[in-house]
Automatic annotation (TrEMBL):
This is N-acetyltransferase domain-containing protein. Pfam families: Acetyltransf_1. It comes from Peptoanaerobacter stomatis. InterPro entries: Acyl_CoA_acyltransferase, GNAT_dom. SUPFAM superfamilies: Acyl-CoA N-acyltransferases (Nat). GO terms for molecular function: acyltransferase activity, transferring groups other than amino-acyl groups. The lineage of its organism: Bacteria, Bacillati, Bacillota, Clostridia, Peptostreptococcales. Residues 168-238 form the N-acetyltransferase domain.
Amino acid sequence: MLNNEIYEEYFLNASISTFNINIGGFVSKYWGIDISSNCIFPIYEKNDPQIDKKISEIENFLLEKDIVPIYRIVYQDNYQKLDRVLFNKHYEKVANNIVLACPLQGKKNELFKFADFNESGIYIDTEITGGDGFLEDYFYLRKISKNDQIIFNTAIDICPLKKYSASLLEEGHLIGQAYFIRQGDVVIIKDIVISTKYRGLGYSSKILYSILTYCLKNGAELVIAEIPTDNENVMNLFGNNPMFFKLYDIFYRQLIKNTKGRFIFD
């Protein structure tokens, strides 16, 4: 298995979805609230000679549940056959993201130099559970629908990994929040959100660096994140950040419908 697929396992395990099923080495995550928790991770058996049959089996399973199949594709050689098959079966690209990493070894001086400033006003909760106060505030900041709130509250409790939150307050006002997940010595940053009226003031960087400092203090060795390439603010926060470097590119392919609203099949 290539190194990138090791990281893909971290993202698979940290995907906040209500259900998952493994069909021939392709793990389908569904009933989550974002694309990474409603997609198929084809980590194993991508060169299966019966790959067409496997894709059809997954399609039938998901479409019966009114779920549109979406595949997560890594830009590397052993995904090319699968990508060609999906293209020929009318799956189109719907998102382009990159995966970034921040190795924490050797970052102590850099992070601890401004630790007092970065950690001021930051409150870390070491266990997120469905229905807790953090999630109520997070749903408000993200403007998440009531239905998606129910889904997320259920899914967050199903995820077996350690889940953390970070909240930034100033003079009693909630400025922003983040949540991240840890597996072993690797931390996956899932989201950082800032209240609308405080955006553009550097608060997202403050939260990010406080997370990195916390992770370093608590023995983590690597922090990774998946970010969209079409979001300028997120790209500036992570992609142009010297603490991070790019590991690899990914994109998503989704089964498309014809003009009559029906899914296209061969």
